[in-house]
Design brief:
Layout: H1 9-15, E1 22-28, H2 33-46, E2 50-53, H3 65-81, E3 85-92, H4 96-102, E4 110-112, H5 116-126, E5 130-134, H6 140-152, H7 161-170
Parallel strand pairs: 1-2, 1-3, 3-5, 4-5
């Protein structure tokens, strides 16, 4: 379970049992709960990665997407600051709200995917570290395909590096 954020988050990241070198943080609003549960099961079956369910929990009930986007993005950011391989998967009804919210955070490059090629290319060309999906717009099998494509792709660097540097400079505003 995704732990609440605290100053000791780095200690938590280093002491939690990891099954791999890659952390995958998953979160959704109430509209994406079914898809999040499905994607979590797929990732656990795969092996080689360490999926972390960031909620919401049943006790949290209906939640606003910015809260879960912040939770996942903070963990992706903090893990990457510690030089860990970390990615996020966010799911809401259309994916649009989660994508807007995720891209508000420094160091986060979130992309909304509707097909396998988009999920793969956002990693290869944009070095995306958060995949956003819409439960109302994609089937579960399509989501599985997109998640696997996203996680299986690597940043191609080369001609894309100057563009990523431009994006990084934009993290501070205008």
């Amino acid at each position: 379970r995704c732990q609440p954020l605290a100053p000791s988050v780095s200690a938590w990241l280093w002491t939690r049992p990891q099954v791999s070198d890659t952390l995958i943080y998953l979160g959704s609003d109430h509209n994406g709960n079914a898809a999040r549960a499905y994607v979590l099961r797929v990732l656990k079956r795969m092996g080689g990665i360490d999926p972390v369910d960031c909620g919401p929990t049943e006790e949290e009930g209906k939640v606003d997407y910015p809260i879960l986007a912040a939770r996942v993005c903070r963990h992706v950011h903090d893990s990457r600051q510690l030089k860990l391989s970390a990615f996020g998967v966010l799911i809401c009804g259309t994916g649009t709200g989660m994508c807007i919210a995720a891209n508000k955070f420094p160091g986060i490059r979130a992309g909304l995917a509707t097909d396998r090629a988009t999920a793969e290319l956002m990693r290869e060309h944009n070095d995306a570290n958060v995949l956003v999906l819409g439960q109302w717009r994609s089937s579960l099998s399509n989501m599985e395909e997109m998640v696997l494509a996203f996680l299986g792709a690597s940043f191609q660097e080369g001609r894309h590096i100057p563009r990523i540097r431009m994006l990084e400079r934009m993290d501070g505003g205008f």
